[in-house]
Amino acid sequence: MAVSDPSLDVENALFASGVRYVIGCDEVGRGAMAGPVAVGMAIVDARIGGIPAGLRDSKLLSEKRREALAPLAADWVLHSAVGEASAAEVDALGITACLGLAGKRALLALHASGADIAASTVLLDGSQDWLNPALGSPLPVQTRVKADRDCASVAAASVIAKVHRDRMMIQLHDEYPHYGWAGNKGYGSPAHMAAIAEHGATPVHRVSWIKSEAP
């Protein structure tokens, strides 16, 4: 197995310890200058079948491959959802609080689809539990650095969330074509930053971030 191939080893260890469901969780758009931050969640149980061929952390895949894998990942897991926090919310609350807010919205969407949230442990990519501070009732959360690379449920959440947010930024490109969002997806590429300098910020820019980048 290549280093970039995720497995279910961590999820299976959680199932063996008595956990009924594992919710893989990953964020996308954290470092963007425009658009929402999004949190993807994908829930699996011990009966989950073979991992879709080619599933990877979304950062290791081409856009075309992500688009092909997203529906396969969504079909593979029991339920999936993406929650968002807007650029205005990022300006008002800060990025860490908005990760939690987007995660809370994803959990609510999972619950609405029939997922048993109360019987789940969240497997969260990274070293910080930014989810529980946003919840009224805490959930078991296991953080893991590079979980999006190593854990199949988190890789699935990563791909689903990335495709969801990318499609949103491509749609916004049609409304605000100067900024090149169809290509840069709201991240601070040189062309994007030059367009901000020439045309100013839009309602979907993180204005506080632009100010922090100003000389």
Structural descriptors:
215 residues; nuclease; 5-stranded mixed sheet; alpha/beta; Nucleotidyltransferase, domain 5; RNA-DNA hybrid ribonuclease activity; RNA binding; EC 3.1.26.4; globular
Largest sheet: 5 strands, mixed
Q: Give the DSSP E fraction (strand runs of 2 or more residues).
A: 15-25%
**Radius of gyration from CA coordinates:** 17 Å
Unreliable residue runs: none
Quote the CATH topology: Nucleotidyltransferase, domain 5
Label the overall shape: globular
Major sheet: arrangement of strands: 3-2-1-4-5
Task: Kindly describe this structure.
The chain has 215 residues and is an alpha/beta fold. The chain has a single domain, classed as Nucleotidyltransferase, domain 5 (2-Layer Sandwich), CATH 3.30.420.10. Helices cover 45% and strands 16% of the residues. The protein contains nine helices and five strands. A five-stranded mixed β-sheet has the order 3-2-1-4-5. Helix 2 packs across helix 6 and helix 3 crosses helix 4.
Short structural summary:
It is built from nine helices and five strands; from the N terminus they run αββαβααββααααα. It is α/β, with parallel strands linked by helices and 215 residues long.
